[in-house]
Automatic annotation (TrEMBL), chain B:
Pfam families: BPD_transp_1, OppC_N
UniProt-recorded name of the protein: Peptide ABC transporter permease
Membrane topology type: Multi-pass membrane protein
Family to which the UniProt record says this protein belongs: Belongs to the binding-protein-dependent transport system permease family.
Domain spans labelled ABC transmembrane type-1: 64-253
Compartment(s): Cell membrane
Organism in which the protein naturally occurs: Candidatus Saganbacteria bacterium CG08_land_8_20_14_0_20_45_16
Length: 308, 264
């Protein structure tokens, strides 16, 4: 965690661009400029700036955004729900769809279904995320006109009743959610299929079949439970990818989440905000990995924490 | 897999030829305004014209040049760094291994596109920086593979023999072990190039990569979103080219993996 913060802090500050230049008149009086730089702490050496920043973060203060003057924490927390609103359902949907797809395609290896799934997962991995988003937008909002292309609510939705607003939100959610799910689905289904194939090759599966158990029991009780173990790990490892996707997908669909905030912060050289978002994403990714480890212990009886 | 990799090789071959002979193949200058804006594809303009009236086919051919070059150079950088890091970590082990692998973990904890965007924003976004930045942010997977190979190979008796006759560390690392760790590196390079092309397209699309007017498949999509209603081919064609290229690289990579018997 410290490593993440240190690395990104120094990378940020290697910038040749001067953040003050974006917000001030080029003809500003040098004394005023110096005063602004002192206010933002930009006159200090970079090590001092880092420890100053780190000390504040440990006290829960991520600094203030250069553009809005609001605390970074407030800005990020304001945007976080919108991002989680996409990421959590995308995550759950991915898991719910990928397991059956991967399992069926492994059990029926070489069938038309398996070939189709393989083709789709390769295509999904090879597609630029923003392009998939654009194509879905082209089909469903431009050509068919079924769904809104961008944003989170219609203009004027603030005056509607709760039911209408939830419905409106759901309509806006479908395209970004679909894009995100399809993208993470592709790679993980390949893993699920490979994991299931490996398990089906094991001796205990042959034993189970040899003692005359029905195929259904062999697949669901013996094979599936073992094939789920690697998937739990992969789901944890796929979190950074999902985050990277969020930055691009939120930008295309103008979804007011943390990703879009981050991309804007980068264009504005808003260091405190960029740092805040990096730290937040890293935290969430680590939390995800922790959850994956716990999930690992739940599905794999060989692993038990605390009793070694 | 055989059929798929053949398909991949053919597509890549065509695209590489197009990239090399771009000035001969492209009917127009990629930067020149040659006709009315947003014309649908016709025989005269195979892919139509873009929002400024430039010939999209010519731009796509020159774009192939840029996108493939960026992918190739970026993956070369990433393979060089990854191999060196992985070799040092795997061969020497101990604290050096710990240090390098912790660094790998840190790099992997970032959402990569955000890190790349942030670095790009610091530098002037031009084509050389795109190659370098993608290269230095994508070597971690290679480092892990290579480290694993070195951990395995350094225990083999021929390495022991090389040590016994007094070969230097660098000679063992590069002359004795490296040739035997080639297979996974070749596979990783093929798949890595696919990743680099995808990253370049995303960066250029967000305006932080290859800068217009130089055409790349990614930055050709920048304005396409605004013209989606009237000129959807502006958005469809460059994306399809990226998809085909990356897909072909995946197929070839998978084919190589089977041929060279590399475990994933």
């Amino acid at each position: 965690m410290i490593g993440v913060s240190l690395l990104s802090f120094f990378v940020m500050h290697l910038a040749p661009g001067e953040p003050t230049a974006l917000f001030t008149d080029p003809n500003i009086n040098p004394a005023d400029l110096a005063r602004i730089r002192v206010n933002w702490g930009l006159d200090q050496p970079i090590f001092v700036q880092y420890f100053y920043w780190l000390g504040n973060v440990l006290r829960g203060d991520f600094g203030t955004s250069y553009t809005t003057g609001q605390p970074v924490l407030t800005e990020v927390l304001q945007r976080l729900p919108a991002t989680l609103l996409l990421m959590i359902p995308a995550y759950i949907l991915t898991f719910l769809i990928t397991v059956p797809l991967g399992v069926i395609s492994a059990v029926k290896k070489g069938s038309w279904f398996d070939n189709l799934v393989t083709l789709f997962s390769f295509a999904g991995m090879a597609m630029p995320s923003f392009w998939l988003g654009l194509m879905l937008m082209l089909l469903f909002s431009v050509k068919l006109g079924w769904l809104p292309a961008v944003g989170m609510y219609d203009v004027g939705a603030g005056d509607w009743g709760l039911g209408a607003r939830v419905f409106d939100l759901l309509r806006h959610m479908i395209l970004p959610l679909l894009t995100m799910t399809l993208l993470s689905l592709a790679g993980i289904t390949r893993y699920q299929r490979a994991a299931m194939l490996e398990v089906l090759d094991q001796d205990y599966i042959r034993t189970a079949r040899a003692k005359g158990l029905p195929e259904r029991v062999v697949i669901f009780k013996h094979a599936l439970r073992n094939a789920l173990i690697p998937i739990v790990t992969i789901l944890g490892l796929s979190l950074p990818g999902l985050f990277s996707g969020a930055f691009i997908i939120e930008t295309i669909f103008a979804w007011p989440g943390m990703g879009r905030l981050g991309v804007m912060a980068i264009f504005q050289r808003n260091y405190p905000l960029i740092m805040g978002i990096v730290i937040f994403s890293a935290l969430l990714i680590m939390l995800g990995n922790l959850l994956a480890d716990i999930g690992y212990a739940l599905v794999d009886p060989r692993i038990r924490y605390g009793k070694s | 897999m055989g059929r798929a990799s053949r398909f991949g090789i053919i597509i890549l071959f065509i695209f590489i030829l197009a990239a090399i002979f771009a000035p001969i193949i492209a009917p127009y200058d990629p930067g020149e305004i040659v006709d009315q804006t947003t014309l649908a594809p016709t025989l005269q303009h195979l892919f139509g014209t873009d929002d400024l009236g430039r010939d999209l086919f010519s731009r796509a051919v020159y774009g192939a040049r840029i996108s493939l070059t960026v992918g190739l150079v970026a993956v070369t950088i990433s393979i060089l760094i990854g191999t060196l890091m992985g070799a040092l970590a795997g061969y020497f082990g101990g604290w050096l291994d710990g240090l390098i692998m912790r660094f790998v973990d840190v790099m992997l904890a970032f959402p990569s596109i955000f890190l790349i965007l942030a670095i790009q924003a610091m530098l002037t976004p031009n084509i050389y920086n795109v190659m370098i930045v993608i290269g230095v942010t994508s070597w971690m997977g290679v480092a892990r593979f290579v480290r694993g190979e070195y951990l395995r190979i350094r225990e083999l008796s021929y390495v022991e023999a090389a040590k016994a006759i007094g070969c230097s560390h660098s000679r063992i690392i590069f002359r004795h072990i490296l040739p035997n760790a080639q297979a996974p590196i070749i596979v990783a390079a093929t798949l890595g190039m696919a990743g680099a092309i995808l990253t370049e397209s995303a960066l250029s699309f967000l305006g932080m990569g290859v800068q217009p007017p130089t055409p790349s498949w990614g930055n050709m999509l920048i304005d396409a979103q605004a013209y989606m209603r009237d000129a959807p081919w502006l958005a469809i064609i460059p994306g399809l080219l990226i998809l085909l290229t990356v897909l072909s690289l995946y197929f070839v990579g998978e084919g190589l993996r089977e041929r060279l018997d590399v475990r994933s």
